[in-house]
Design brief:
Elements lengths: L29 H5 L11 H4 L1 H10 L1 E7 L7 E7 L9 E7 L1 E3 L2 H4 L1 H13 L16 E3 L1 E3 L12
Amino acid sequence: SFKKMNKIDDDIAYQDHSILAVNNLLETPMDELMASYGKAKGGGSCERDFGNGLINHWRDRRATFCTPSSSLKSSRIECYLVKQTAHHGNGDNLCLGQNIQINFGDLANEKITASYFERYVSSRHQQQYSKIRYSRGTWKAACNPIPEKWQAQYFPG
């Protein structure tokens, strides 16, 4: 799945960065893209917190937060909460929703966004100030929240 971009560079060109020459970048699984780089060096938790180790850690953390309801236009929300070893805060949560509605009104409100950016910069880029706290009702979905998962502690930021 790798192609060489230039005959002159055959020996050197993507020797260390073959990911740059992938034809089907968006269709190639991330662990396959990162495989040529090997494991993260540094010992300790480096492999778990960077590179393929981090990708696999994210994959292993999948949890269903909202199960489909019985309606025809049912929704589903699955999230991946990861706390890296030396990172501050409660972790990062990536959520994937199927058939959900999102109101981006908070992002269109300059007062809200300006205050968050100012706080983030003045905090010297501390993670807890990097995320906007969206208004209630920002997400709409036809699913059944799992009470033990649908809690503030699982939505850091």
